[in-house]
From TrEMBL, chain A:
Alphabetized InterPro entries for the sequence: CPA3_antiporter_subunitC, NUOK/Mnh_C1-like
Chain segments carrying region Disordered: 116-152
Main location: membrane
UniProt subcellular location: Cell membrane
Keywords: Cell membrane, Membrane, Transmembrane, Transmembrane helix
GO cellular component, one term: plasma membrane
Official protein name in the record: Sodium:proton antiporter
Family of the protein in this entry: Belongs to the CPA3 antiporters (TC 2.A.63) subunit C family.
Domain of life of the organism encoding this protein: Bacteria
Compositional bias ranges of the Low complexity kind: 135-144
Composition bias type Acidic residues, residue spans: 125-134
Lineage of source species: Bacteria, Bacillati, Actinomycetota, Actinomycetes, Pseudonocardiales
Pfam family, one: Oxidored_q2
Membrane topology qualifier: Multi-pass membrane protein
From TrEMBL, chain B:
Species in which this protein is naturally found: Prauserella flavalba
Protein name: Na+/H+ antiporter subunit D
Keyword list, A-Z: Cell membrane, Membrane, Transmembrane, Transmembrane helix
PANTHER family: NA(+)_H(+) ANTIPORTER SUBUNIT D1, NADH DEHYDROGENASE
Phylogenetic placement of the source organism: Bacteria, Bacillati, Actinomycetota, Actinomycetes, Pseudonocardiales
Domain of life assignment: Bacteria
């Protein structure tokens, strides 16, 4: 099959922007990354069907001139799925913001454990209760400032 | 007969809708869930017998001939895993109902749980039964979307971070899955699993390898292979015990199943694949070392889960009949054992009120039954004879030695080492949680959330369902002979692929 250069460049752009945003620290950007990556993937399904052609209605065009309908069906399904999951993700991000009061992606649990261990090794005088700190790190949660009203 | 193949997907989907309609009546919801999952188990048993006797059972959806329509197919492997999954989901549902009744009484309804759980089961069944790459994606999405809801129900601040990681990682892998399908379709013009091998075989070897590796990455994220495993120990332990049990038992194994299916059916490997062997070795070693470093019971079990995915990959990477037979045995064993361990962990934390191994002690003296329920699957996981883990591991080790290349020997040695380290890890749990003086339970840190630790009460339903799962894992060891024969036949089918293709495409496709 022939490859449309414009489409290839657009796809490359969408994937690059999507993955770049996905690696950001702010949750909103991560979600935008998922959205753009989703557009890229769905467009890719379309492009995989080959060059555009006549619509697939029996008797309206030559079979050779018709476009391949299967990728369109697949892309439609994939679009619905990504759309639904984006909505879910937005709801989850809102819950996260409501509970935590910010939309920063938090550090990994293991990273925090290592940091705590390092801090304890450096200066025992700073931390008065190393055990309590370790327990907190294991529990994997440092209570940040929650917003005043928490919608349930 | 062929319509039976659709039922394991259709029944839970319809039941999920029905379950939503009757959400005011908790009793009806429970009845629907248990009935449907029992029915799936029975159907899976029939499918297994049928596919073993007469070859794969095939249904072409909507009457479209393959490779144009969607195919549902139950061969030996799919039926066997369907049966195991049905038993595990049933046990977990009973556990979950027992827990709900103990904590909130009979009359409270949990609106979302039952419908979502049934959707999850539908997704898992569809993933096993589908014979179409895009349909496999849809199956994954049904399964994952319900798992997102299950893991984020009544999130607290602590759990929202973990579930966010889970959702975003899974979504990214799903988008990579779409990309992979687009690439496969662009290269071959079909997404039917039975029609793909011929088309893939015509491609340039470089393109074949890149498509194969892309599939390993996509399914590797779901299966938690080592460079792609980081999300799992973060997210699974934060969910309520029954949810963690079904995720740990099933979701990763569905990823492994997709890996096995695509790498044997779609791509033809004549000899062991070194890249996959190395990944298997890393998965085993890094997983188990991660487990030993933990102090949190659930996180430790999650790392052990990652570690043991390595065994399944090891058998697959060999691409021999006995290797694959070992993998199938291992998957069946691991689904039951891992789910049983997480359910027992749920029982333990209900009494101790903490997941920290340092803080709990004396469970063996206070609750001897729970100690037995933990010890059997734990020993099985470590591969102590005569339990199911031993049977599955010995099959894999034999397969590794039979291949006999330096890489295969190295991974075999790593498998033995991992087995010993697993024993060390479960011993650490045993010493921390079960020995010592009986400790006062810690109070539940957050009584409003779904994670009910420290309530100190268990009901018969919870104990019976956990006991049932443990009994299944013991039965696997008892019936190891017939099961190993069955696995071997399934593995031979997988490597040959002819029966599968003939069943889907007719006589012309089997060549």
């Amino acid at each position: 099959m022939t490859v449309n250069l414009t489409m290839a460049v657009v796809l490359a752009g969408l994937y690059a922007v999507g993955f770049y945003l996905l690696m950001q620290r702010s949750l909103m950007r991560v979600i935008l990354g998922i959205v753009i990556l989703g557009h890229g993937a769905n467009l890719f399904l379309q492009v995989a069907g080959g060059p555009p052609g006549e619509p697939v209605f029996a008797g309206t065009a030559l079979i050779e001139a018709m476009v391949d309908p299967l990728p369109q069906a697949l892309a439609l399904t994939a679009i619905v799925i990504t759309f639904a999951l984006t909505t879910f993700l937005l709801a989850l991000a809102y819950r996260s913001w409501a509970l935590l009061g910010h939309d920063e992606v938090q550090d990994d649990v293991e990273d925090r454990r290592i940091r705590e261990a390092e801090r304890r090794r450096e200066g025992m005088d700073e931390s008065d209760e190393p055990d309590a700190e370790a327990a907190e790190a294991v529990a994997g949660f440092e209570a940040p400032e929650a917003s005043e009203e928490v919608p349930r | 007969m062929t319509v039976l193949v659709a039922l394991p997907v259709l029944l839970p989907l319809l039941a999920a809708a029905l379950s939503l309609i009757v959400m005011r009546s908790p009793r009806m919801q429970r009845l629907i869930g248990v009935t449907v999952l029992t029915a799936i188990a029975v159907i899976a048993g029939v499918l297994l017998a049928e596919s073993d006797k007469h070859g794969p059972v095939v249904l072409q959806l909507g009457g479209y001939a393959a490779p144009f329509g969607i195919t549902l197919i139950a061969d030996r492997l799919a039926a066997l895993l369907l049966l195991t999954s049905a038993l595990v989901t049933l046990a977990v549902l009973v556990f979950s109902i027992g827990q709900r009744i103990t904590d909130y009484g009979r009359q409270t309804a949990s609106t979302a749980f039952h419908p979502m759980y049934l959707m999850l089961c539908a997704g898992v069944s569809l993933a096993y039964l589908t014979g179409d790459l895009f349909n496999l994606f849809v199956a994954f999405e049904i399964m994952l979307a319900s798992s997102y809801v299950l893991i984020t129900r009544r999130t607290t601040a602590e759990r929202v971070r973990a579930s966010m990681t889970y959702v975003i990682v899974s979504l990214t892998s799903s988008l990579l899955f779409i990309t992979m399908i687009a690439l496969v379709y662009a290269a071959t013009g079909t997404v039917n699993l039975a029609a793909l091998p011929e088309k893939i075989g015509e491609l340039d070897p470089g393109v074949q390898t890149s498509l194969g590796l892309f599939m390993v990455v996509v399914f590797g994220i779901k299966a938690a292979l080592v460079p792609l495993h980081f999300w799992l120990p973060d997210s699974y332990p934060t969910a309520p015990a029954p949810i963690t049990a079904v995720f740990a038992g099933l979701l990763t194994k569905v990823g492994v199943y997709a890996l096995i299916r695509t790498q044997t059916l779609v791509f033809i490997h004549d000899e062991s694949w070194t890249v996959l062997l190395v990944v298997a070795m890393l998965t085993m070693i890094i997983g188990v070392l991660g487990a030993i470093a933990q102090n949190d019971l659930n996180r430790m079990l999650s790392f052990l889960l990652v570690s043991h995915i390595g065994y399944m990959l090891f058998g697959l990477a060999l691409f021999t009949v006995i290797g694959l037979a070992g993998v199938i045995l291992y998957v069946v064993h691991h689904i039951t054992v891992q789910a049983a361990l997480f359910l027992t962990s749920g029982l333990i934390t209900r009494h101790t009120g903490t997941v920290s191994l340092q803080a709990m002690s004396g469970v063996a003296k206070a609750y001897p039954l729970i100690a037995v329920l933990f010890a059997l699957p734990a020993l099985s996981l470590a591969g102590i004879p005569p339990f199911s883990g031993f049977v599955a591991k010995i099959a894999l080790l034999q397969a590794g030695a039979a291949v006999g290349t330096p890489a295969a020997y190295a991974v075999t040695a790593a498998a033995v080492l991992t087995s010993l380290l697993t024993l060390f890890a479960v011993t650490k749990i045993w010493v921390g949680a079960f020995w010592g003086k009986v400790a006062e339970p810690h109070p539940d840190p957050d009584p409003t959330d779904e994670v009910t630790v420290g309530t100190g009460s268990t009901s018969k339903g919870m104990l019976v369902s956990t006991g049932g799962l443990v009994a299944v894992s013991v039965l696997i060891a008892v019936f190891a002979g017939p099961l190993a024969d069955m696995s071997e036949r399934a593995a031979a089918d997988l490597l040959d692929g002819g029966a599968y293709r003939t069943a889907v495409l007719g006589e012309a496709g089997g060549e």
